[in-house]
Please model this.
Amino acid sequence: MKAFLLHQLGADPGTDVIDLCLDHALIRGQQAHKFTHIAGLDLFPNLETLSISMQEIGKAEGMEGLHALRDLNLSLNHISEVSGLAGLPLEKLDLSHNEILSLKGLPVLPVLQELNLGHNQLREMWEGPQLPVLRTLTLSGNRQIKAIRNLGTLPALRALYLKGCYISQWEGLSAAQQLEMLSISPGSMQGLQILQELPRLKSLIISAKRLHGTATLPPHSGLKSLQIIGGQALETLQGLQALPALETLILRQNRLKSAPNLSQCVRIRHLDLSYNPLSALPDLSQLSQLETLILDGSPIHPKAILDVQAAFPKVDIRF
Model:
């Protein structure tokens, strides 16, 4: 790597460089072989942003002198353990699509706000240190994570992405009292009553691939956005009437045959029922604030859609 960097610099001083991208997709015209280790970054002591993605890096190293580094992307490599990050003033760290088994080597990063560990081989929810200002944590695609634990060490957490994690124990969610956004892939709705204990939760995304038959949503008085997508065996949805604050409801690509009960969801502005085998539309008479209705791929009789257009002339209806 260092020889490549020296060649690219020529006579220019590396001290002027604050943003460096060494992604294989970007430099493969100049560098056919992928990098296997990090070297030569001492040429760029003022780096603030560094991306070394889609290479064959096996270890995070060689960054000790980067005292201005704020944004680091080492995704799509072969890193198996977290190391070499101590002392870096990182605000954003992307280690997704690697081979990481454990977070035991992750140092305290006191200003880290965003951490992406998606699509690794983690077995535990959180083994890392306390990260006092971390706002966004992505663990999607770590299928061996079964239980939510230790979120109390992330007191500022606002967004948690767990799509593709086969979690069955949800009790630990109650420690994330500042959580506003949650993305999950539950095998059932059992245990999700815990969502009632998250007073700031505003957005919930459910990847419904593993849901079957009937799903009953837990009540929540403050939830504003709900997405349930991809439930090819999900036929019935219950509990929407206990979500009175909903403004956005996306129920795309499920197997819903009957229309959900929206009688108490009077604040809905955006409703997406596309790609469901619905035989009829839900009762929309209470949805006085409706702005968008999406019905793509749904076998609803055109006359029913025309009736809705006549009743809601200002609504943008797509079918």
User: Anything to note?
Assistant: Residues 133 and 304 are 50 Å apart (CA to CA). The longest strand covers residues 233-238.
